[in-house]
């Protein structure tokens, strides 16, 4: 793997991650860009106890551009995008419309491939491994920035959840605080340690493996299951079997196995809603997807230990992947109960979700 | 006000609230309904510490029926709906597809008016006062049910947030636990009491009134403001000036003033996204709405003290009203940061939201 760090015309960082070591990345960004003027502000809600990022400059952000104006494609034929090179493997750059900026953190865009029409699920294992390297490296780099408390690598996929750029990409948020969701896990972890002396992540994983009904896929180093109290119609959690606090601490064996596990899960996600379609009953399209089938919208969220948490070694790195689609053509909305009271209603029993996700396994 | 309690064919309760005392409600539900078979189950998430309602029977619920099959319209001309009467003022009944049922609580539907094409904002002050009476009475009744810990009256409005029945209606959830959002407020309240001896709700309200920049509307008994750390593009909180823990404790003066305050705020919400439209610059449609203008999707959520909270008298009843629309034609989605980490990104500065909501005031 070769990493090349450079700058865009307005001073933002751009980092190439290449699988070949002999690639030269010296393309210059020739766009006449104004310096980025962001006004991101973190405000504390005294009643709810959380922090909100107020980012008004984002209202002007790029919104569903036509494919030939995609800012994440390579710069080719005189068309200048965010990536000045004529091709790339994986490219990461600072978001021009960041939710977090300056003292409030940092936002980056991760382009998974230069292929505009691909999805993460279409990547080869080698390409996915390179993305994992990029996530890991960015976590290391962003952790060094002053004020950063937690690094969050994620992917939003699908117009249904508001994705405005079709090019396959994810994002990284470097928060200047520990997020409320992680705070909740840390509280549960502390209470469980107090009560039992054990590690709650380890115990939940052991219980899921012993029960078995919600296990979707098990590798040598990773296990994938639908959680007992899943909040979303189809939701899986991917845990390395050996607990580590963050991506940097993953060992080579887990790192090597991850791409095949994750790609298989993503491909299954795209088959959940194929009608009357179990094992083998589908037309093989790109990445095993039925031709013309609607891609499943999803959010993929890497949970890593906050940088300065008191018992950070007890935290368990894991990936939470879920879709907001509850059945073919119907979405799960966060309405009164979820948004008003933070109580989730899930119409798909976790055991049924796990069964479906086993049913649509790839042929091997 | 006259209240009449009866039963639907499958045993569910139906309650009429009429403004006239001489109305007779003796219509019988003649539908051949099977008994409601629900399988709602509450599951505890050990890591997040919250409870999820798993309600698989809801997948079959009524989904965007044509207007002439609306289950919330009165029963007329041989067409039998959920309300057997040929007309009604306000009607409340147990949901046939409840998220919470049996030991897990209860879900009710509140029909605001028999007029299928109206919105809450179209109601007269008298009609809105009747809805307030219904909310108050249902809170009292549901609080008596065994196992109920918190009563939540709310309205989801708009297809954009997943509303599948166009008829103007709200819902009431009687939860068998204190909701996570309320827990957070109670925690902040306790910490503030400990630190200052004061009441956090009172202090926040006093600070908003003193600052003034986010005040949208002030009556004699109610004040409406955009919170300092608003989570949603347009979000307002309505507080009675005299703090009370729940709807039952509202005094007559606040009760009497509420309809005009709330109706005005709802009408302003429908005008937020009218292009180039300030005070008086619009065609007057129904309820003051510009003819043909898109109605603003919103969630309106009544926050009431949990029934058995330790310091419940310290809680402040209030209504939180917010829209997921961030600009004309664009929605705010809860994607990676919000759904993955519970960190909200808000693209509209609260002061700008308040200014817009003052700008679109009704002429008086």
How would you describe this protein?
The structure is a homodimer of 364-residue chains. With 364 residues, chain A is α+β, with helices and mostly antiparallel strands. Residues 278-292 of chain A have low confidence and may be disordered. In chain A, the strands form three sheets. Chain A has an eleven-stranded antiparallel sheet, with helices on both faces. Chain A has a two-stranded antiparallel sheet with strand order 3-4. A two-stranded antiparallel sheet of chain A has the order 14-15. Helices cover 23% and strands 22% of the residues of chain A.
Describe the structure concisely.
Two copies of one chain form a homodimer. With 364 residues, chain A is an alpha+beta fold.
Q: What profile does the largest beta sheet of chain A have?
A: 11 strands, antiparallel
| Low-confidence spans of chain A | 278-292
Q: What is the oligomer described by this structure?
A: homodimer
Question: Span from first to last CA of chain A?
Answer: 29 Å
Percentage of residues in strands of chain A = 15-25%
* Major protein interface: A-B, 74 and 74 residues
């Amino acid at each position: 793997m070769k990493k090349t760090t450079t700058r865009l015309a307005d001073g933002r960082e751009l980092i190439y991650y290449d699988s070949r070591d002999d690639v030269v990345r010296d393309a210059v960004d020739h766009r006449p860009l104004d310096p980025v003027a962001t006004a991101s502000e973190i405000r504390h809600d005294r009643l709810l106890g959380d922090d909100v990022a107020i980012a008004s400059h984002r209202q002007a952000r790029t919104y569903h551009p036509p494919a030939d104006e995609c800012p994440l494609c390579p710069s080719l034929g005189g068309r200048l995008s965010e990536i000045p090179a004529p091709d790339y493997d994986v490219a990461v750059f600072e978001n021009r419309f960041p939710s977090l900026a300056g003292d409030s953190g940092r936002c980056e865009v991760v382009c998974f491939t230069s292929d505009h029409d691909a999805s993460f699920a279409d990547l080869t294992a080698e390409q996915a491994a390179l993305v994992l390297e990029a996530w890991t490296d960015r976590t290391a780099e962003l952790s060094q920035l002053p004020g950063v408390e937690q690094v969050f690598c994620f992917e939003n996929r699908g117009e249904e959840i508001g994705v405005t750029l079709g090019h396959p990409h994810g994002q990284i948020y470097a928060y200047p605080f520990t997020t409320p969701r992680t705070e909740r896990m840390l509280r549960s972890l502390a209470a469980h340690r107090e009560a039992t002396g054990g590690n709650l992540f380890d115990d939940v994983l052991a219980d899921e493996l012993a029960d078995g009904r919600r296990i979707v896929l098990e590798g040598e180093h990773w296990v994938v299951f639908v959680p007992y109290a899943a909040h979303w119609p189809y939701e899986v959690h991917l845990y390395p079997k050996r607990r580590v606090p963050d991506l940097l601490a993953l060992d080579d064996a887990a790192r090597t196995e991850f791409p095949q596990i994750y790609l298989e899960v993503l491909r299954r996600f795209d088959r959940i809603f194929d009608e009357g379609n179990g094992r083998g009953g589908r037309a093989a399209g790109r990445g095993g997807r039925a031709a013309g089938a609607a891609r499943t919208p999803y959010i993929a969220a890497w949970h890593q230990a906050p940088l300065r948490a008191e018992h950070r070694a007890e935290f368990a790195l894991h990936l939470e992947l879920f879709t907001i689609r509850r059945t073919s053509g119907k979405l799960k909305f966060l309405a009164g109960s979820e948004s008003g009271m933070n109580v989730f209603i899930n119409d798909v029993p976790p055991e049924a979700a796990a069964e479906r996700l086993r049913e649509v396994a790839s042929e091997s």
